[in-house]
Design the sequence.
């Protein structure tokens, strides 16, 4: 039995929380695009598993692995999945939480695009810079 698009994305967040990165990547198309807005060291467009894996590693290095995502709502309309979330991190001894909207596009049961929308882009830029 295959998972719905909403279940695929929920499971990817759960797998990430458990540190099961291979399972996270199993939910991603090999050509997935990943967009992080802003002007921080993490802001960029990434493509494919290798670049996104590098992004995950860089994120964890910047926050000394003190990083989590609280998923509040998952909204689904066909191949579009919108996640309302809070990103939590600690950097240089300072804890911060950021409201975000994550927009996913899926095709044939695989995530093909991720776009992050930050509640306060300037604050996130300052935190990660």
Sequence:
């Amino acid at each position: 039995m295959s998972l719905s698009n909403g279940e695929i994305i929920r499971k990817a967040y759960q797998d990430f929380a458990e540190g099961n990165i291979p399972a996270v990547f199993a939910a991603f198309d090999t050509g997935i695009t990943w967009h992080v807005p802003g002007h921080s060291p993490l802001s960029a467009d990434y493509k494919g598993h290798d670049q996104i894996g590098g992004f995950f590693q860089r994120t964890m290095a910047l926050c000394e692995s003190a990083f989590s995502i609280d998923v509040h709502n998952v909204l689904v309309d066909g191949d579009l999945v919108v996640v309302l979330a809070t990103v939590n991190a600690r950097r240089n001894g300072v804890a911060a939480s950021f409201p975000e909207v994550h927009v996913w596009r899926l095709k044939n049961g695989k995530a093909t695009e991720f776009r992050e929308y930050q509640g306060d882009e300037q604050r996130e830029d300052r935190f990660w810079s």
In short: The chain is about 35% helix and 45% strand.
